Amino acid sequence: MLPQVKSEPYPWPFDGRWSPADTALMIIDMQVDFCKPGGYVDAMGLGVELTGAPIMPTRRVLEAARTYGLHIIHTREGHRPDLADLNPNKRWRSARTGAEIGQPGPCGRILTRGEPGWEIVPELTPLPGEPVIDKPGKGAFYATDLDQILHRLGIRNLIFTGVTTDCCVHTTMRDANDRGYECMLLSDCCAATEVANHEAVLTFTQMGHGLFGTVAPSEALLDVLEKQSVPA
User: Cα angle at 208 between 205 and 190, to 5 degrees?
Assistant: First the structure.
């Protein structure tokens, strides 16, 4: 077992039981469409200064997770090229933002599988063997095999990074919490399109003695991992 991570409102995990074998780093939707110029977020006029900021902190955590043998799971939001899995209300809302899903943009068709914008940013490219969950919705458990993969791997603890904090990251974290996974959110490895939304998620995650899990800076996790011996 590894030492608990200094997090709020309690040291994570709650029971002190975690190891690389039973813990997964979740990298949620770190895609060109959300984090780079010319993508979906940029097309909505929101800019990517905020959503691009977690790339380098997450890269450092990802490298440490690989070094110390944690499981790593990536997710991508996107829809079939024929848009058969795109709900009418979601398509309507995206059109109102000026960035309709499926329409052409600087990075290809917006939020469409197989397009350049749908790909994970190159700084965080998955390695062979790291599962990539392709999802049509906000939560990574909806219409995917994520839960089956986690159970098959023997995962009980999840560490969350990605974008956006207030949408896909926290939707997945809440669902994971309901399913019994022990969750921690790395505050500097997540972002929203508005700072206030990001900070609100950090606050209500911790309410009720950790209603949805805990919050920690990535340094707290790295401090624990980097004191361990590198697996042979």
Answer: 10
State the residue range of the domain holding 196: 22-225
| Active-site residue, from 35, 107, 168, 189 | 168
Distance from C-alpha of 177 to C-alpha of 158, rounded to nearest angstrom: 9
29 is catalytic: yes
Give how far the C-alpha of residue 140 lies from the chain's centroid of Cα atoms, to the nearest Å.
Answer: 9
Residue 6 lies in a domain: no
Residue 13 lies in a domain: no
The answer to whether position 12 is within a domain reads no
Instruction: List the catalytic residue out of 33, 107, 135, 138.
Output: 135
CATH number for 213: 3.40.50.850
pTM score of the predicted model: 0.98
pLDDT, one tens digit per residue, over 137-194 is 999 999 999 999 999 999 999 999 999 999 999 999 999 999 999 999 999 999 999 9
Catalytic-residue membership of 107? no
Whether 188 sits among the annotated catalytic residues: the reply is no
